[in-house]
Amino acid sequence: MRILGLISGTSHDGIDSAVVEFHPNEDGLEASVVTHGSAPYAAGLRDRLVQALPPRSTTFEEVAQLDTLIGQAFAEAAVAAIADAGPVDLIVSHGQTVYHWVEGARVMGTLQVGQAGWIAEATGTPVLSDVRIRDIAAGGQGAPLASTIDELILAGRATGGRPVAALNLGGISNVTVVGADLPRAWDIGPANALIDAVVRERGLHAAGYDESGVIAASGRVDEALLAALMDEPYYRLPAPKSTGKELFHLDYVHAALERLGRDLADADLVATLTALTIRTVADALASLDPAELLVSGGGVHNRVVMDGIARALAGARVGRTDELGLGADEKEAVLMALIGWLSWHGLPGTTPSATGAGGGRILGTLTPGAEPLRLPEPCPRPAFLRMTAPQARTREHG
Predict the structure, then answer these.
(1) Three-class SS of residue 273?
(2) 3-state secondary structure 216-243
(3) Which among 171, 318, 313, 189 is positioned nearest to 241, based on CA atoms?
(4) What pLDDT is stored for residue 396 in this prediction?
(5) What's the DSSP call for residue 246?
(6) Model pTM above 0.90
């Protein structure tokens, strides 16, 4: 079965896509990425999206328009991917998260925009969307959904009594830990979210992020500000837990600087926020003593972050998910495709111990394509996921 996964993450930069070919194999599942790509949002659309996000206020009119415009952008990305890879059987669209409603340790709801009907109309292919809410309705966090792919791709790697872990460094950092106990997963805190917000506000890089960690490497960590940031109550909540830019945004940095009573030089502020990412990841994992940590997401390209995590977790071998055939930049789009395969075959897309739900749930809402839906009979849940050749082709479009 060939599935196209689409997602825009918490960095709000654009749409990642991956066409994935799935083949059941004994008690597991083999998958190969046929093609993957990235389509940046048009500058005007991204600006409107960012201006509508918390802590700013917005209107139903703006939300409705963004739902359509982002849905059309996802449809364009889908058409481009299919033109490159050929027909697909299913499209899975995560859409764009605009609000994750958290009260204390409980998630009350979540909202992703990017109307799936535009994708189905443009491609004639059925679309699975709204993939988080069923887990939340069952008492879960609806996140991190990366635990679904992490559990399968890390299966069998934990040896010698020590667990292994998969870390994703997007706007928010999340981790899955697999060992003798049930898989555990949670959102750790800000990965790139605060760094990117400051880089954009202060115009430090045209692309809006600290490329390779160059800015952080030129600055000095302000220990007083770092201590103030580390005092965030979220870090002390037990897992499973989730968070987002509703908490970690530019005004959060401004408030911390106001409490400190002074501003910092650009490079020093970026260095301190980068140290926050490193420290929160290290604190979250140190007591679990993972034998290896495989990293994905945009943060893998920040050498200051990667080197800092490796030093802080000296007992772990730190690498990238590329070692497993799962490219660090394509993982989330492949995850969407995997969730689609599971839902299409009547299988839960979450693990209760990872999200905190009352049980595993089949995820998503199906929008028919040009033909009536014809789902197969449910099948056994795969015990592992193995990524195989062919080597994926990378596309840049949009």
Answers:
(1) helix
(2) HHCCCCCHHHHHHHHCCHHHHCCCCCCC
(3) 189
(4) 52
(5) T
(6) yes
